[in-house]
Amino acid sequence: MIMKSKKRSNTPRHKRLNRVSRLQAAKHWMPKYEGKNIVKGYSTHFGVDKLCAVKELEVLGYKIDTQYINRLKVSLIERQKFVERKDKIKEEKRLLAKYLEDKLDYCITRYIGMEIEENYGEDEEIPF
Fold first, then answer.
1. One digit per residue, pLDDT tens: the chain, 128 residues?
2. 50 exposed, middle or buried (CB, 10 Å; 0-12, 13-18, 19+)?
3. Which of 53, 60, 75, 108 has its CA 20 to 30 A from that of 21?
4. Alpha-carbon distance 50 to 60, whole Å?
5. pTM > 0.85: yes or no
6. What is the structure's pLDDT at 114?
7. Inter-axis angle of helices 66-119 and 50-59, to 10 degrees?
């Protein structure tokens, strides 16, 4: 009997961990980290945003500058506003394209309808 192999996830295990597991794994990961910005390294390694990384690093005993935290919050708010503006512009373009398409369809239908009425009577067949 042939056994099916298990489907493996393409996402690395350290990016699938929940908070408790991340905190346990971080204890072993932090001594190996050689970068300058521990918050950025933590967030990229474990696949969390930087504010989450700050909270978890503070739980682990790291002191993070409050000015840095405030800058992260401001940048997050600005990013959300940018995405909202981008989505709004995209939606407006979609609505404009739909309106123009409907308007064009109406104009073409009206033009063809008028042409058919002018050139052909009710007795004659339409050539198409």
1. 677 788 888 888 889 999 999 999 999 999 999 999 999 999 999 999 999 999 999 999 999 999 999 999 999 999 999 999 999 999 998 888 888 887 777 777 777 765 544 454 555 565 55
2. buried
3. 75
4. 15
5. no
6. 55
7. 160
Give the pLDDT of residue 116.
Answer: 45
Tokens for 87?
């989505």
State both tokens at 74. Answer: 């401001």
Specify the amino acid at residue 66: T
Name the residue with tokens 């390294």: 41
- Asked if 14 contacts 46 with a C-beta cutoff of 8 angstroms, the reply is yes
* Rounded CA separation 53/38 (Å): 9
CA nearest neighbour of 45 among 33, 36, 56, 54: 33
The two three-digit tokens of residue 57, written as one number: 């690093």
Count Cα atoms within 13 angstroms, Cβ side, for 43.
Answer: 12
**Structure-token pair, residue 109:** 């239908």
Q: Which residue, chain included where needed, has tokens 């682990």?
A: 60
